[in-house]
Amino acid sequence: MGSLLFSPVTLRGLTIPNRAVVPPLCQYSAHEGMANDWHMVQLGRFAVGGFGLVFSEVVSVLREGRITHGDLGLWSDDHVAPLKRITDFIKAQGAVPAIQLGHAGRKGSMQRPWEGNGPLGPEQFAKGEGTWDIVSAVAAPIAEGHLTPAALDAAGMMRIVQAFATGAKRAHAAGFEAVEVHCAHGYLLHQFLSPISNTRNDGYGGDLAGRMRFPLEVIRAVREAWPQDRPVFVRISAVDGADGGWTMEDSIAFAAAMKPLGVDVVDCSSGGIGGSATGSKRIPRGYGFQVPYAAQIRRDVGLATMAVGLIIGPHQAEAVLAEGEADLVAIGREAMANPNWALMARGVLEPGSTEEVFAPWPPQHGWWLEKRAAVMEALGKPPA
Question: Active-site residue numbers?
Answer without folding.
Answer: 187
